């Protein structure tokens, strides 16, 4: 069996949940602002969809962070010394907050400086995430992985409610700069519980394992997991890349989309995460992942029909949008990220878990940029129809790959 981290028996899972959860919320505030809030604001100002798709280039650091994850892990877990997770999180969180302040000062025009600034913020955030994930996996015993997974998925939806929901309402009422300044303050404050929490109690240790990408890629669990991640993310996320702009073009204003994002993330998303966690325990991850893909296929076909007819009641459009972007997504990603934790070696959890997330981010980025191009040239109906076909085709592939989960577990224990 893979050895557990040195903190497993010393730190309450509930404390880890609260402090690490704050970091995941902060990361998702930035992600929600960038991936959902900003495209919606830009479309509201009349920017073409293919240019809005360039926002997904900000995912690049998340897609490539596996390249520097071994260096982060080696710094975080020195051969002799204390765990340095706290130092990485405190310094990185402060830089992220400062970066958002700069974005508030520059404004939205021209767009390129904003994108460059957001890419730099994403680089810092993704680096902090390596330390955060590593700390969670090594600190929590296997039976408590559900705590970490709930903190990650639940924190993501709560952060998205703030970064994509509250943020849009604030932009609509007070303008871009004040809204961004408030998000910077939220990001900074959310990092304080971790900086002054259990991470301060790390002991001086001697470590004999050197984290590396080669070690990770030698394990069958990691290799199969990367394929599962790439296919599943393409199925779930590609069809939702242009959801914000679609809602604006359908006639909703910024405040309404903001409330929709906020309510969906805080209520439907959290409910989906809880249901997903229970369903994984009752029926297994394979069942939950396959079910989520089939449900998302139906939602994408509904969006294509909404655009084609142009006459669907707004209440139905809102309901499907909330269920698709929050409920179904949360349902499936609880199962997927729970598997990520199980497939990661606690001795280099920051490297292993980062590889899975990079597959997620790289596929998301490619789909986001391509989504803008397709939607601009062929319309939303074609875009959602293509996404639905990809989603449906992924279902049997995921099911067959996940049938080998026992093999993955065996590989993880070697």
Automatic annotation (TrEMBL):
<dbReference type="Pfam" id="PF07690">
    <property type="entry name" value="MFS_1"/>
</dbReference>
<keyword id="KW-0472">Membrane</keyword>
<dbReference type="GO" id="GO:0022857">
    <property type="term" value="F:transmembrane transporter activity"/>
</dbReference>
<keyword id="KW-1133">Transmembrane helix</keyword>
<dbReference type="InterPro" id="IPR011701">
    <property type="entry name" value="MFS"/>
</dbReference>
<protein>
    <submittedName>
        <fullName>AmpG permease</fullName>
    </submittedName>
</protein>
<dbReference type="InterPro" id="IPR004752">
    <property type="entry name" value="AmpG_permease/AT-1"/>
</dbReference>
<keyword id="KW-0812">Transmembrane</keyword>
<comment type="similarity">
    <text>Belongs to the major facilitator superfamily.</text>
</comment>
<keyword id="KW-0813">Transport</keyword>
<keyword id="KW-0614">Plasmid</keyword>
<dbReference type="GO" id="GO:0016020">
    <property type="term" value="C:membrane"/>
</dbReference>
<dbReference type="InterPro" id="IPR036259">
    <property type="entry name" value="MFS_trans_sf"/>
</dbReference>
């Amino acid at each position: 069996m893979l050895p557990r981290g040195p903190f497993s028996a010393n730190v309450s899972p509930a404390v880890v949940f609260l402090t690490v959860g704050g970091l995941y919320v902060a990361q998702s505030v930035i992600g929600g602002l960038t991936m959902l809030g900003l495209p919606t604001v830009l479309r509201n100002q009349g920017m073409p969809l293919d240019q809005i798709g360039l926002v997904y280039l900000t995912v690049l650091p998340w897609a490539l962070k596996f390249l520097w994850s071994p260096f982060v892990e080696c710094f975080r877990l020195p051969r002799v010394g204390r765990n340095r997770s706290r130092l990485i999180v405190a310094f990185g969180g402060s830089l992220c907050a400062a970066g958002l302040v700069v974005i508030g000062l520059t404004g939205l025009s021209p767009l390129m400086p904003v994108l460059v600034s957001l890419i730099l913020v994403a680089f810092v955030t993704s680096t902090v995430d390596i330390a955060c994930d590593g700390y969670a996996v090594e600190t929590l015993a296997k039976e408590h992985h559900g705590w970490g997974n709930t903190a990650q998925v639940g924190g993501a939806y709560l952060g998205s409610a703030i970064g994509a929901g509250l943020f849009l309402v604030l932009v609509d009422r007070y303008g871009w700069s004040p809204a961004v300044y408030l998000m910077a303050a939220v990001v900074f404050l959310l990092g304080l519980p971790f900086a002054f929490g259990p991470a301060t109690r790390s002991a001086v240790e001697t470590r004999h394992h050197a984290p590396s990408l080669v070690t990770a890629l030698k394990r069958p669990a990691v290799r199969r997991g990367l394929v599962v991640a790439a296919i599943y993310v393409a199925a779930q996320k590609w069809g939702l890349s242009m959801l914000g702009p679609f809602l604006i073009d359908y006639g909703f204003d910024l405040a309404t989309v903001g409330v929709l994002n906020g309510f969906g993330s805080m209520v439907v998303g959290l409910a989906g995460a809880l249901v997903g966690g229970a369903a994984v325990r009752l029926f297994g991850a394979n069942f939950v992942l396959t079910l989520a893909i089939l449900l998302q296929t139906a939602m994408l076909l509904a969006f294509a029909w909404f655009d084609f007819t142009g006459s669907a009641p707004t209440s139905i459009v809102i309901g499907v949008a909330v269920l698709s972007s929050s409920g179904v997504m949360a349902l499936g990603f609880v199962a997927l990220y729970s598997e990520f934790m199980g497939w990661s070696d606690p001795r280099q959890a920051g490297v292993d878990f980062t590889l899975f997330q990079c597959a997620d981010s790289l596929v998301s980025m490619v789909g986001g940029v391509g989504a803008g191009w397709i939607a601009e040239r062929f319309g939303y109906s074609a875009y959602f129809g293509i996404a639905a076909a990809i989603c449906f085709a992924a279902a049997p592939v995921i099911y067959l790959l996940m049938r080998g989960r026992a093999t993955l577990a065996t590989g993880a224990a070697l």
